[in-house]
């Protein structure tokens, strides 16, 4: 993995109530490109993301972002440090318009028009519904808005949890195009995804979790080309999930 990762977790343990979910997670996210975080359901992927963001606290271990220890920082301070987080539940304000949702995501309160045009090129539906309440959007459009909110201002790291969950194939293809374009910018991306066509299409590096630990780390290309490794780590073949 990278010698100077933008994000580094070492020996991270997380408890949720009486449950010990993460059991010493070691994870490096290189600067630039997309790191896929894969694993079976219940492996600890979402808990890892929420621990990075300070939504759940690491009981042991450390989280470093851009060389800074953020393990004990509050969530707003972690976001201010340059990390944007898109949870899997399509986090939008349904009673506000698309425009109001986007303005709230801009830390200054004012949206850079050039960057907004760039977002509209990736998500043209948001321009169409700009003055409509977010609650009237379809599930796919809400997911577009969730991602758009996270990238309306430049960030160093974008963390996204299952952006294609429940989406139609045409919208999944749109998401693939979006993340391929984001890869051309300065942002680094940590992406949890169950759609393996998406994972193979956009992933550069990969970490696989099982039972609260990272059990494999390497390149996405190597994992995509090794069916025996896929079966051992994930219990399935990527070729069966086009």
Automatic annotation (TrEMBL):
Q: Which PROSITE patterns match?
A: ABC_TRANSPORTER_1 (PS00211), ABC_TRANSPORTER_2 (PS50893)
The UniProt record lists the ABC transporter domain at 7-236
Top-rank taxon of the source lineage equals: Bacteria
Q: Which SMART domains match?
A: AAA (SM00382)
Acyltransferase as UniProt keyword: no
* Pfam families to which the protein is assigned, alphabetical: ABC_tran (PF00005)
UniProtKB keywords: Amino-acid transport, ATP-binding, Cell inner membrane, Cell membrane, Membrane, Nucleotide-binding, Transport
InterPro entries recorded: AAA+_ATPase (IPR003593), ABC_transporter-like_ATP-bd (IPR003439), ABC_transporter-like_CS (IPR017871), BCAA_Transport_ATP-bd_LivF (IPR052156), P-loop_NTPase (IPR027417)
Which is one GO molecular function term here?
ATP binding
Q: Of which family is this protein a member?
A: Belongs to the ABC transporter superfamily.
**UniProt name for this protein:** ABC transporter ATP-binding protein
Question: Per the UniProt entry, what species is this protein from, by scientific name?
Answer: Cupriavidus malaysiensis
């Amino acid at each position: 993995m990278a010698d100077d990762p933008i994000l580094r977790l070492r020996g991270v343990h997380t408890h949720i109530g009486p449950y010990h979910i993460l059991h010493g997670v070691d994870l490096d996210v290189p600067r630039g490109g997309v790191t896929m975080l894969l694993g079976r359901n219940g492996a600890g992927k979402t808990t890892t993301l929420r621990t990075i963001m300070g939504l759940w606290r690491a009981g042991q271990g450390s989280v470093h972002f851009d060389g800074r220890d953020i393990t004990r920082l509050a969530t707003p301070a972690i976001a201010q440090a340059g990390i944007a987080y898109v949870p899997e539940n399509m986090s939008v304000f349904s009673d506000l318009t698309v425009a109001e949702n986007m303005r709230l995501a801009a830390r200054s309160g004012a949206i850079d028009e050039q960057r907004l045009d760039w977002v509209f090129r990736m998500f043209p539906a948001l321009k169409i519904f700009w003055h409509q309440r977010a609650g009237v959007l379809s599930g796919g459009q809400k997911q577009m808005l969730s991602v758009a909110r996270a990238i309306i201002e430049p960030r160093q790291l974008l963390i996204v949890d299952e952006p294609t969950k429940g989406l139609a194939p045409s919208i999944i293809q749109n998401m693939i195009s979006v993340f391929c374009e984001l890869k051309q910018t300065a942002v680094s991306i940590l992406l949890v995804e169950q759609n393996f066509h998406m994972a193979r299409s956009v992933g550069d590096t990969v970490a696989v979790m099982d039972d609260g630990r990272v059990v494999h780390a390497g390149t996405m290309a190597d994992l995509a080309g090794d069916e025996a490794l896929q079966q051992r780590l994930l219990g399935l073949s990527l070729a069966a999930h086009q």
